[in-house]
Write a structure and sequence with these properties.
Blueprint (H helix, E strand, L loop, with lengths): L1 H37 L14 E7 L15 E6 L2 E5 L12 H8 L9 E3 L5 H4 L2 H6 L16 E3 L14 E3 L4 E4 L2 E3 L3 E5 L3 E5 L1 E6 L3 E6 L6 H11 L4 E6 L11 E2 L2 E2 H5 L11 H12 L5 E4 L6 H11 L12 E2 L1
Parallel strand pairs: 3-4, 4-5, 5-6, 12-13, 13-16
Antiparallel strand pairs: 1-2, 1-17, 2-3, 7-8, 8-11, 9-10, 11-12, 14-15
Helix pairs in contact: 7-8
Bound molecules: zinc ion (2 copies).
One zinc ion (ZN) binds next to loops.
């Protein structure tokens, strides 16, 4: 009898929390959609170009090199002419020092002093360097002392200078902005996610001379459809490459608690029983095909092997693997 009573109370409690979350989701989604619709985006007057570009994944889920660390997070070294941009600082799930990012940088011969700017795509744990960093609204390279050079750190929301790795304060950028000749932040595209709430995410667009726009994306919560729409509103040039996370943990995910696919649960703007589906992956493929990029490279950190297979089938020779230590040269 007592067991039945506890069961009923627990069920009622869970139902109440779920009802509250669904209500928040509905309201938040409406607000985020209204914000997107209300944004006045105009063509960039003079974005400039770069001549050479490469993207070297320093943190992601797969590698072919046994000397390199992997984890379900993102950190990419984007080298545009002489400018080195670090997009995100990985996950450091095990709170290590040196972190997987730092270890991989060392193995690949990259030093913090080589960096000219840090670009935080969005304030989620797998991009800020950990769960504590997400909670405390900060970021870290490693859970031990690393002195960062005094370079700009761009973020879509206010995050403080790293406690572990002291250095510059972040500069908040929400509007589209030319960071340097040919290197552009496309500006935030808000989305309300179940559990993660209101999420502002930025992405990089590099204008490569004679080729076009190369998009480098963190988690892709904005949706690729809206990223493409934003890019076309900002540039006259064609989209040459789409590289990075698009968040399709369909038929599997990289962060599982028992049978629960955490990335699918937290990264959707729908209730958990609908969430991210096969049809979303097909819509993304159709949207990408509509702009005929020459390179498509999907991050495995937040998309499943099933999804990667779908992309490989859809894009054939255009598809390039994202693997730690494997440079993508544009
Ligand atoms: Zn992510
Ligand atoms: Zn995220």
């Amino acid at each position: 009898m007592i067991a039945l009573y506890i069961f009923l109370v627990l069920t009622a409690f869970i139902a109440l929390i779920l009802a509250k979350k669904i209500l928040q989701l509905k309201k938040g989604k409406k607000l985020a959609d209204a914000q997107v619709a209300g944004m006045k985006i105009s063509k960039l007057a003079s974005p400039g170009t770069v001549k050479a570009l490469s993207i070297l994944p320093l943190i992601d889920y797969y590698t072919d090199n046994a000397d390199l660390k992997t984890e379900p997070g993102v950190s990419y070294l984007v080298s545009a002419d002489a400018t080195n941009i670090l997009l995100d600082v990985g996950f450091n799930k095990k709170k290590e020092h040196p972190s997987p990012l730092l270890q991989n940088m060392k193995t690949l011969g990259i030093s913090e002093s080589d960096l000219d700017m840090i670009f935080i795509s969005h304030p989620h744990l797998d991009h800020l360097g950990g769960m504590t960093e997400q909670k405390e609204k900060t970021f870290s390279f490693s859970k031990g002392p690393v002195s960062l050079p005094n370079i700009p750190v761009y973020s879509p929301v206010k995050i403080s200078a790293s406690r572990w790795n002291p250095g510059p304060e972040t500069k908040v950028i929400t509007d589209p902005a030319v960071l340097k000749e040919g290197i552009v932040s496309i500006g935030v595209i808000p989305r309300f996610l179940f559990l993660m709430g209101h999420t502002l995410e930025n992405a990089l667009a590099i204008n490569v001379e004679g080729k076009g726009i190369v998009l480098v994306i963190g988690c892709g919560h904005q949706t690729i459809e809206r990223i493409i729409e934003r890019t076309r509103a900002l540039f006259d040039e064609p989209i040459y490459a789409i590289i990075g996370g698009l968040h399709y943990p369909v038929h599997g995910g990289r962060i599982m608690i028992g049978p629960i696919n955490i990335q699918r649960l937290v990264g959707s703007d729908r209730p958990p029983w609908v969430s991210i589906r096969e049809s979303d992956v097909q819509s993304a493929i159709a949207a990408i095909k509509s702009v005929s990029p020459k390179i498509v490279a999907l991050s495995p950190h937040d998309s499943s092997d099933w999804c990667i297979d779908q992309f490989k089938q859809a894009f054939g020779d255009t598809y390039v693997d994202v693997k730690v230590g494997q440079k993508i040269v544009i």
